[in-house]
């Protein structure tokens, strides 16, 4: 525990978001809370938010095909709000030794309330991979790349006819001509159209390990955003191939609409 304590402190002080341990198709249920302090929250007079996702994934054909459902909630401006539901269809190739590519298709639906919705439907076709090196330790190299496309926009107006909490993608007045405005999900901010990805390495020492995951985003296909992430992994193996999987992670987005920092826990039961 004396060794783990400084690692936990490092995670809390530094880094990132979005922290799945496995990209491939699987059977799992889990929860992922995220506490963040992003600069965009200053627009509504807040300093922090909580975004929590309940998810379930069911796989078919020996974990080659799966469907995942994410049901998220957010706590913003001291209100508990329903956020945007997402579904993910995955296809994983399992026939390649130590290399597992996965093709994904994510759909986001504007089901959220107030400050916890982007207000539009979006799709994310993506590609992920995992490569495993088993000696001297289990080294897990992984990555993801995919574009996000907004296919519809919803503009809310109040009684005066003004748009309700539609904001610029950055808070700098010098960038007002570089970005458009859209409805912001303040608990999980992102631009309407963007490219997102990461390349990372996970090292496991028996049940405990760490994950280094520099993420990047190309917001509005204009602004490059770097978002480093570090995580502490714990995997508890159970009987019959089941396992509890935990990733305590921290992030730090250096610029863009995501600018800010936070900590979260990605946890699930795999069966």
Task: Give the key terms.
271 residues; mainly beta; Porin; 12-stranded antiparallel β-barrel; 4% helix
Describe this structure in words.
- This protein is mainly beta and about 270 residues long.
- It has one domain: Porin (Beta Barrel), CATH 2.40.160.
- About 5% of the residues lie in helices and about 55% in strands.
- The protein has 1 helix and 17 strands.
- Strands 1-2-3-5-6-7-8-11-12-15-16-17 form a 12-stranded antiparallel β-barrel. Strands 9-10 form a two-stranded antiparallel ribbon.
- The chain is globular and about 50 Å long.
- The N terminus is likely disordered.
Question: Which SSEs are present, and which pair or pack?
Answer:
Layout: H1 4-13, E1 28-38, E2 49-60, E3 65-76, E4 79-82, E5 86-92, E6 99-108, E7 122-133, E8 138-150, E9 166-168, E10 181-183, E11 194-205, E12 208-212, E13 215-219, E14 223-227, E15 229-237, E16 243-253, E17 260-270
Antiparallel strand pairs: 1-2, 1-17, 2-3, 3-4, 3-5, 5-6, 6-7, 7-8, 8-11, 9-10, 11-12, 11-13, 12-15, 13-14, 15-16, 16-17
Question: What's the quick description here?
Answer:
By secondary structure, the chain is mainly β.
Kindly name the structural category.
mainly beta
Low-confidence stretches: 1-18, 155-165, 167-181
Averaged pLDDT, please? 84
Instruction: Give the assembly state of these chains.
Output: single chain
Radius of gyration: 19 Å
Total domains, how many? Answer: 1
Count of runs of 4 or more consecutive helical residues: 1
How far apart are the first and last residues' alpha carbons, in Å?
29 Å
Order of neighbouring strands in the sheet with most strands = 1-2-3-5-6-7-8-11-12-15-16-17
What is the tally of beta strands? 17
Q: What best-fitting shape do the alpha-carbon axes yield? A: globular
**The CATH superfamily title:** monomeric porin ompg
Relative helix content = under 10%
| Broad CATH class | Mainly Beta
SSE topology string: HEEEEEEEEEEEEEEEEE
Profile the largest sheet. 12 strands, antiparallel, barrel
CATH topology: Porin
Q: Tell me the strand percentage band.
A: over 45%
The CATH architecture: Beta Barrel
């Amino acid at each position: 525990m004396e060794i783990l304590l400084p690692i936990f402190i490092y995670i809390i002080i530094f880094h990132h978001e979005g922290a799945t341990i496995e990209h491939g198709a699987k059977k799992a249920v889990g929860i992922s809370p995220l506490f963040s302090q992003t600069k965009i929250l200053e627009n509504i007079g807040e300093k922090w938010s909580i975004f929590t996702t309940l998810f379930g994934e069911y796989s078919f054909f020996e974990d080659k095909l799966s469907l995942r459902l994410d049901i998220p909630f957010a706590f913003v401006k001291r209100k508990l709000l329903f956020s945007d539901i997402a579904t993910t269809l995955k296809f994983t190739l399992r026939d390649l030794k130590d290399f597992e590519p996965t093709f994904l298709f994510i759909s986001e639906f504007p089901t959220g309330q107030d400050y916890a919705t982007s207000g539009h439907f979006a799709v994310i076709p993506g590609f992920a991979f995992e490569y495993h090196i088993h000696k001297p330790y289990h080294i897990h190299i992984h990555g993801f790349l995919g574009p996000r496309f907004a296919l519809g926009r919803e503009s809310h107006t109040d009684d005066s006819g003004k748009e309700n909490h539609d904001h610029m993608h950055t808070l700098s007045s010098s960038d007002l001509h570089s970005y458009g405005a859209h409805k912001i999900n303040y608990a999980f901010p992102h631009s309407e159209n963007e490219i997102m990805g990461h390349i990372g390495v996970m090292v496991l020492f028996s049940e405990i390990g760490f994950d280094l995951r520099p993420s990047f985003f190309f917001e509005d296909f204009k602004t490059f955003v770097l978002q480093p992430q570090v995580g502490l992994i714990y995997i508890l193996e159970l009987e019959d191939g089941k396992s509890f999987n935990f990733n305590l992670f921290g992030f730090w987005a250096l610029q863009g609409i995501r600018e800010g920092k936070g900590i979260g826990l990605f946890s699930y039961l795999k069966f």
